[in-house]
Design a protein that fits this description.
Elements (H helix, E strand, L loop, with lengths): L1 H11 L3 E5 L8 E3 L4 H33 L8 H27 L2 H15 L4 H7 L2 E3 L8 E2 L13 H10 L1 H18 L5 H21 L3 E6 L5 E7 L13 E5 L10 H5 L5 E5 L13 H18 L7 E6 L3 H10 L5 E5 L5 H7 L6 H11 L4 H5 L6 E6 L15 H13 L6 H11 L14 H15 L13 H15 E4 L20
Parallel strand pairs: 4-5, 7-8, 7-9, 9-10, 10-11, 11-12
Antiparallel strand pairs: 1-2, 1-3, 5-6, 6-8
Helix pairs in contact: 1-3, 2-3, 4-5, 6-7, 7-13, 10-11, 12-13, 16-18
C-alpha cells in the first residue's frame, strides 16, 4: 500500500530541484539527479506543455483559420476523437514513465515521505522544517501560512453559470476578457509565462540556493484567500546586532519579469533591514496568474504573514516596489495606511497610457478598453489613499516609463505631480506646477537650486505649520504665500519626496536609495 501511494504521489508530485544538507545558514546543496525513465517522461510532458502554450496564445488566429478550413464540421468528429485518444494515451504514458522513474529514485521517495508527513502534521515544526531541506515546486506543497479574508479583499470570483450568461449577454466584454488572458496578461507580466519561467529556472534555482545557504533565507509557502500558493523568502536580520535597521522589515514587490531570487529583494539585502521577498502569482513557483485581484490577494497574504507569523508591527514595515510591483505595494498601502513608509521605484501612475503607447494607434481605443476592463493598474488612485511617508524614485533614462523618449513623458513624473497636488493643494498653483514641470523635463533636475541656502528656513516654516495643524493630508500650507515662496516650498518638498537615479529601467537600485522616506517635520 505504501509503495502504491508513493507511486501515485510521484506521478503528480512536485519537481525536486535540489536537496540541502539541512535547513539554514551554511547548508550545502546537492542537485537532484533524475534517472533516464523520469527524464523521458518529463521531456514528453514538456513537449505537451509547449504545444498547449503555443495553442493558448495563438487561438485568436488559429481558431478562425481552422473554422474556415472546415475542421469543425460534423464529418470530422471521428477524426477529432481519434486525435484526442492518441493524445490522451501519450499523456498517460508520459505520466506513468515519470511516476515509475521517480519511484525508483531514493531521493525522490524520501522527499515524498517527508512531504506526506508535513501535510499530515501542518502544526509540527520539525516536520515542516524537514520539508525545507528540499527545493521543490510548490503546487502540491503544504501551505505554511494561510491568509484570512479582510474587508478590503477583492470579492470572490463569479460562478461558472454567471460567466456563461455574461458571455452571451455581453459578447464584447467576453472578447476583451479572452484576449486579456491570451495576450494582454503575458505581455504585461512576461514573468508569468511558461517560456520565461523555463528559461530562467536554472538561474533562479542557483540564486535560491545562494540565498538559503549564504544569506540565511527562510523559504515559506503562503496561501491566499483565492487558493493560490505564493513563494516567499524571509531574511531575518533581528538577531544580528550589527544591523542598525534590523527591526524594520522591507516587503519587496518586484517587476513584471523579476523574481525575489534576482530582483528587488536582492537589492534590499544590501541594506541593514530585514527583508521579505515574494513572487507574483504565476512567477516561478508561485501558483495562479497575475490579474489585479490575484495580485491584491497575494500581497495581502504576504502582509498577513509578516504581521501574524513573523511578528512585525505595521509601524515597523516599509514597502519597496520596483516597476509594476508598485501596483501591489500601493494596494497594500491603501489597505493598511498604518504601514510605516513606502518607496515606489521606476514606476507609473496608470498603466493605460503606457499600454496604448506601445500598440498601433489604430487599435488604441481597443487596448484602452481591454486594459481598463481586465488589467487596469491604477497606482496613483491607490497611493493617494495613503498618507504616510513616501519616496518616488525616478530613473532619469527610464526607457520603459517614457512614452515619447523624453524625460518629461516619464510616467513617474505624473505619479509624483498627482501625489503632490493631493497632499499640498495650496502649493500646487499654476506657477509652482509650471516650475516643477520645467524641472521634471530635465534628465538631471536641479530642483535644489530653487531654494539654495534656505533649506533650514523652509523646514522651520513647515515645522511651525505642523505644530499648529498636525501632520495630516491634505496639508494646506502655502495659502498665504507669494508665488516665489510657493515655488521654494514646492521645490523643497519635491527634493525630499522625489529621488532621481541616473540609470535605465532594469538597473538595480543602490542601497543608499532604499532608506526610510522623509517625514513632515
Amino acid at each position: 500500500m505504501d509503495a502504491l501511494r508513493t507511486f501515485y504521489r510521484s506521478i503528480l508530485g512536485p519537481r525536486l530541484l535540489q536537496v540541502f544538507s539541512f535547513a539554514g545558514l551554511g547548508a550545502q546543496s546537492q542537485v537532484y539527479q533524475a534517472n533516464s525513465v523520469e527524464r523521458l517522461g518529463d521531456n514528453m510532458l514538456r513537449c505537451a506543455v509547449l504545444v498547449y502554450g503555443v495553442a493558448y496564445y495563438c487561438w485568436p488566429i488559429v481558431l478562425p483559420y481552422l473554422y474556415r478550413k472546415g475542421v469543425f464540421d460534423v464529418g470530422n468528429v471521428g477524426a477529432a476523437l481519434r486525435v484526442a485518444r492518441i493524445t490522451g494515451g501519450v499523456l498517460a504514458a508520459a505520466y506513468a514513465l515519470r511516476g515509475v522513474g521517480r519511484t525508483m529514485n531514493r531521493d525522490y521517495r524520501q522527499m515524498i515521505k517527508v512531504l506526506i508527513e508535513a501535510e499530515q502534521n501542518p502544526q509540527n515544526f520539525e516536520k515542516q522544517l524537514a520539508l525545507l531541506r528540499y527545493d521543490i515546486t510548490l503546487h502540491v506543497a503544504p501551505v505554511y501560512f494561510q491568509a484570512e479574508r479582510i474587508s478590503s479583499s477583492p470579492p470572490p470570483s463569479n460562478s461558472l453559470i454567471y460567466n456563461c450568461i455574461t458571455s452571451i449577454l455581453f459578447p464584447y466584454s467576453t472578447v476583451l476578457s479572452a484576449l486579456a488572458s491570451a495576450l494582454g496578461r503575458p505581455m504585461m507580466y512576461p514573468g508569468s509565462t511558461g517560456m520565461l519561467n523555463n528559461q530562467l529556472s536554472e538561474v533562479l534555482k542557483l540564486n535560491r540556493q545562494h540565498l538559503i545557504s549564504n544569506e540565511n533565507g527562510a523559504r515559506r509557502t503562503v496561501g491566499t484567500i483565492d487558493g493560490n500558493k505564493i513563494d516567499t523568502m524571509f531574511f531575518d536580520r533581528r538577531p544580528d546586532t550589527d544591523q542598525q535597521n534590523r527591526h524594520t522589515l522591507i516587503i519587496a514587490s518586484d517587476g513584471n519579469a523579476a523574481y525575489y531570487e534576482v530582483g528587488g529583494a536582492v537589492a534590499c539585502l544590501k541594506t541593514s533591514y530585514s527583508v521579505l521577498g515574494w513572487n507574483h502569482p504565476g512567477f516561478a513557483a508561485s501558483t495562479g496568474l497575475p490579474f489585479p485581484s490575484q495580485e491584491q490577494n497575494a500581497v495581502e497574504a504576504v502582509y498577513q504573514y509578516a504581521t501574524k507569523e513573523l511578528g512585525f508591527t505595521p509601524d515597523n514595515i516599509m514597502l519597496y516596489s520596483w516597476s509594476i510591483g508598485a501596483y501591489a505595494a500601493s494596494f497594500l498601502a491603501q489597505s493598511h495606511p498604518e504601514i510605516s513608509s513606502v518607496i515606489l521605484d521606476a514606476t507609473f501612475d496608470d498603466i493605460i497610457p503606457l499600454a496604448v503607447n506601445r500598440m498601433p494607434k489604430a487599435v488604441g481605443w481597443f487596448v484602452n478598453d481591454l486594459v481598463r476592463s481586465n488589467l487596469h493598474l491604477n497606482n496613483v488612485d491607490q497611493i493617494n489613499k495613503y498618507d504616510g511617508p513616501l519616496t518616488i524614485v525616478r530613473r532619469s533614462n527610464d526607457e520603459m516609463m517614457m512614452t515619447d523618449g523624453t524625460a518629461r513623458s516619464n510616467r513617474g513624473n505624473f505619479l509624483f505631480m498627482s501625489v503632490f497636488k493631493r497632499r499640498f493643494p495650496k502649493l500646487a498653483t499654476e506657477v509652482s506646477e509650471q516650475f516643477l514641470w520645467i524641472m521634471l523635463s530635465k534628465s538631471q533636475p536641479t530642483i535644489e537650486s530653487a531654494f539654495a541656502g534656505e533649506a533650514d528656513l523652509l523646514e522651520g516654516v513647515l515645522s511651525s505649520y505642523t505644530e499648529t495643524h498636525g501632520r495630516t493630508f491634505p496639508c494646506n500650507i502655502g495659502a498665504d504665500m507669494s508665488d516665489e515662496d510657493r515655488i521654494k516650498m514646492s521645490a523643497f518638498i519635491a527634493s525630499h519626496m522625489l529621488q532621481h537615479y541616473p540609470s535605465q529601467h532594469c538597473v538595480s537600485l543602490p542601497p543608499n536609495y532604499i532608506t526610510a522616506p522623509w517625514r513632515l517635520p
